[in-house]
């Protein structure tokens, strides 16, 4: 295993006690998410513009009062080719992968550079109470990836393994002692069993994703054999030249790869970008009445962290 460190020094290190969420938090999120319908009431609870260039955000986790954001800085965009070469449909391009740490006021605290060569595109990320899990892939389908385990206190990353496909998001299922990933466009699910030392023990099991209305971009393990994923897709409406961008969230069974509960998210920014493009974080709502608090960060470069409190309309 190879470890790398942060390029920008961190401020206000997190205490270890703040890293360990309640074991029941994920199950509570699952229970409350299953109660949500299209009639759910999404109440804005804050909008904070971040004070740094976020490039193209991908995944988000919140630990204590700090946020961690994976993002790809594209220097030279990949270019599609008319005929695939070695199974890939575009050039590698050039870029850098980042894992940013920032505070509730949007101030940058640390910047950890991740990736190697053509593998510079971080994906959706997860936090298991101790480590942040980050995949970094080539910016093209059917390519290659590195999977990292990041210590959020020290802001250091350990390379765990490499995989010959684009891993677009990853979660750690501690109960099943396995990593679960999704490929480009979330068209395939991957499951890597881990040994007692936390190393990949075998080749992954591969399962086709039979849900198509959104492509998962960022996912969180909730325990109980479930993960919650957010994503987007575009649809042509009539003769309109501009596609409709639709976002959604799905509770997915890690055992079967099938959606347990699906929810369109009818929230857009002022520029028309779906809130679920791409990073999100979810936690139990601050009210004792229930519901969830959800954070979205859909915009590139000059990003705003949007916060919503959501509950089922019938319970209000």
Quick synopsis:
The protein has one helix spanning 25-33; strands at 2-5, 41-49, 56-63, 66-76, 80-85, 88-90, 94-102, 108-114, 119-122, 126-127, 132-138, 145-151, 156-163, 167-173, 178-183, 188-193, 205-208, 215-223, 226-235, 244-253, 259-265, 280-284, 292-296, 304-311. It is mostly beta strands and 316 residues long. Strands 1, 9, 10, 11, 12 and 13 form a six-stranded antiparallel beta sheet that branches.
General description of the model:
With 316 residues, the chain is mainly β. It has a single domain (43-78, 88-315), classed as Glycosyl hydrolase domain, family 43 (Tachylectin-2, Chain A), CATH 2.115.10. It contains one helix and 24 strands. It has one helix at residues 25-33, and strands spanning 2-5, 41-49, 56-63, 66-76, 80-85, 88-90, 94-102, 108-114, 119-122, 126-127, 132-138, 145-151, 156-163, 167-173, 178-183, 188-193, 205-208, 215-223, 226-235, 244-253, 259-265, 280-284, 292-296, 304-311. Strands 1, 9, 10, 11, 12 and 13 form a six-stranded antiparallel sheet that branches. Strands 2-24-23-22 form a four-stranded antiparallel sheet. Strand 14 (167-173) and strand 15 form a beta hairpin. The longest helix has 9 residues, at 25-33. The radius of gyration is 18 Å and the shape is globular. The N and C termini lie far apart (51 Å).
